[in-house]
């Protein structure tokens, strides 16, 4: 087979697949640049999220253009961006993995139920439409959380779970406060540093002054220095020379 024949077959197949089209309406799906490309129609960019909760009924509807009389769909829920591990979502109308869809040029509406006890952030809702001319993919992004359950008992380093997000203590960040950051210095920290440096400067100046004005040192202190720290007395230093 010549190379140009291979190219022609590829383009014919591409054109046939591209003829099938689902215009998703709700939730907000990612734009599909090449709908036949797994897993999300050639689009890996995350777009606005649907926020829902475990056990919630959510509507999903689309308009089919260029229908296929043998079309079937399945809807999957993916977490951690792993498209080979998923949960199949059943519609209320069809309680099975695959259901007939896209068989007429019309708007179709289904109700799906989010699994109970299923909580995740940055999940992916994947719609797969199988037709006689190929398979098309659409993806939407969503968060599934409720009443603080998402981060309950998961916040680290004394973080507090508030409305599904961890509020971290100073010095920590991250989704669950697991990342240690450089602690912010308070104004009192700098005041203490200033006072300590000032004290050291004062002591240094006082020692230099008294070294050159030994007569102003009280006799008791001068006797103590003469016995234990002769180097601090100018007269002792001069007499030893």
UniProtKB/TrEMBL annotation:
Transmembrane segment boundaries: 6-23, 189-211
Disulfide bonds: 151-161, 168-177
Keyword Nucleotide-binding: no
Keywords of the record: Disulfide bond, EGF-like domain, Membrane, Transmembrane, Transmembrane helix
Domain of life assignment: Eukaryota
Pfam families, per database record: EGF_Teneurin (PF23106)
Residue ranges annotated for the EGF-like domain, each copy included: 147-178
PANTHER family for the chain: GH04942P (PTHR46901:SF2)
Name of the featured protein: EGF-like domain-containing protein
Organism: Stentor coeruleus
């Amino acid at each position: 087979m010549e190379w140009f024949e291979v190219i022609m077959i590829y383009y014919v197949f591409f054109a046939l697949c591209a003829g099938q089209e689902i215009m998703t309406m709700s939730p907000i799906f990612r734009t599909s640049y090449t709908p036949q490309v797994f897993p999300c129609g050639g689009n890996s960019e995350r777009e606005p999220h649907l926020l829902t909760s475990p056990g919630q009924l959510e509507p999903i509807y689309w308009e089919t253009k260029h229908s296929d009389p043998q079309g079937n769909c399945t809807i999957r829920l993916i977490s951690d961006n792993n498209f080979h591990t998923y949960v199949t979502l059943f519609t209320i109308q069809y309680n099975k993995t695959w259901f007939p869809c896209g068989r007429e040029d019309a708007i179709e509406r289904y109700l799906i139920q989010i699994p109970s006890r299923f909580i995740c952030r940055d999940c992916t809702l994947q719609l797969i439409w199988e037709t006689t001319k190929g398979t098309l993919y659409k993806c939407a992004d969503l968060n599934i959380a409720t009443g603080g359950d998402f981060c309950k008992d998961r916040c680290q380093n004394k973080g507090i779970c508030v409305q599904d997000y961890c509020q971290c203590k100073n010095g920590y960040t991250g989704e669950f406060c697991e990342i240690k950051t450089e602690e912010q210095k308070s104004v009192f920290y700098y005041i203490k540093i200033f006072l300590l440096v000032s004290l050291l400067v004062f002591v240094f100046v006082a020692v230099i002054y008294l070294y050159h004005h030994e007569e102003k040192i009280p006799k008791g202190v001068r006797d103590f220095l003469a016995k234990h720290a002769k180097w601090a007395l100018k007269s002792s230093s001069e007499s030893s020379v």
